[in-house]
Amino acid sequence: MINLFRTYNPLNAIWLAVLLIILRLGYIIDAPDQIQFIFVEPFARLLIPADYEFALSPMMNISLAGVLVFLQALWFNSMVNSFNLLGKPTFLPALMYVVLSALFVPFLTLSAPLICNFLILAMLQKLFATYKIPDAKSVAYDLGMIVALGALIYLPFIFMFIIIWAGLVVFRPFNWREWAAAVIGFATIFFFLAVIYYLTDRLPLFVKIWLPLASAFPTTIHISSYNYLVLVPVAVILLLCFLKVSQLFFRSYVQTRKSFQLLLVLTIVAGLSFYIKKEFHLEHFLLCALPLAIFFSYYFLYASKRWFYESLFVLLVASIIYFQFNTF
C-alpha cells in the first residue's frame, strides 16, 4: 500500500476513503449507546447556549468525525506538496494522517482537538508562507486570532501561541512589530469575550479562565498498558524517521529544514500542553497527528527496503484494528 501512495495520484483519494472506513469499522460495530461531544470550553458556553453534547447519534458522530479527518487529510496533503516539504509530490501525508487519527479509540469520535486540527492546518499554511513575504504583521495578527479561537474550543490550544513565535524565529528576521501583532490578534478575540461577560454581568468570572494555566505539570500519566502496545510500531517508525531525517537533513532546501524544525517544536508543544485540563483524555494527542504524519511520510517516502517498510505499515494498521475489536 505504501508504494501506491508514494506517487501523487488523485485516484488515491478513493483508496484513502476505503482505508479510513476500515480503520473505524471495529468501533462502529461496537459503538456505545451515547457519545459525548463537547465543542467549546465551559467559559465559552455563553457563545453557544444550546445543549448539544448528545445531539448526535453514535453513528452520526463517528461518521462526521471520519468526514472531517478525510477533509483534513486532503488539505494537509495539498499543503505539504505545495510547499514541497518532502521533496517529491506524494499522497503519503494524507495516508499517514488518516492512520494516526485512528490510533486510539477516542480519536475516532468528534472532539475539540479534532476541530482544532483545522486551525493547526491554517496556522501551518500561514507560517510556511511567511518565509517569502516581505511583511508578516498581518499574518501574525491572523495567527494570534486563530490561537485565541482555538483556545475557546479547547483551552490547551492556547500553547500554540508558542508556535507563532517559534515560526517567526525560524522563518523571519526579528521584527518586534510582527511579534506584537500576534499578541494583539490574540487579545482581540478575548477582548470581545470579555465584553460578552461584562454585558451578562459575569465579568468577575472572566479572570477564572486563566487559572488552569497555573496548574502544576503532572509527574505521572495514567494510560492503559494496552494503549502502550499500539504505540510500539509508532515508536519504531518514529525512530527510523529521525534516522532518515538525520541522513538527508542537510541535503534539503533551507525552507524544508526550517519547516521540519518548526514541526518538531509543534509536536513537543502539542504533546505537553495536556496538563492544564483537569480531566485528561487521549484525544488530546490528536493535536500531534499532523506534524507526526509529515515525519512518518518522510521515512516511508525515502525508505529503500520495500518488504520492511510495507510490513511495518501493515503491522501498524493491524495493531490499530486489533485493539479496536479487543478492549480487554
UniProtKB/TrEMBL annotation:
Classification via InterPro entries: DUF6427 (IPR045625)
Keywords linked to the UniProt accession: Membrane, Transmembrane, Transmembrane helix
Source taxon at top rank: Bacteria
Transmembrane intervals: 12-31, 52-75, 95-122, 143-167, 179-198, 205-223, 229-250, 259-276, 282-300, 307-325
Signal peptide: none
Protein name, as recorded: Beta-carotene 15,15'-monooxygenase
Organism: Mucilaginibacter auburnensis
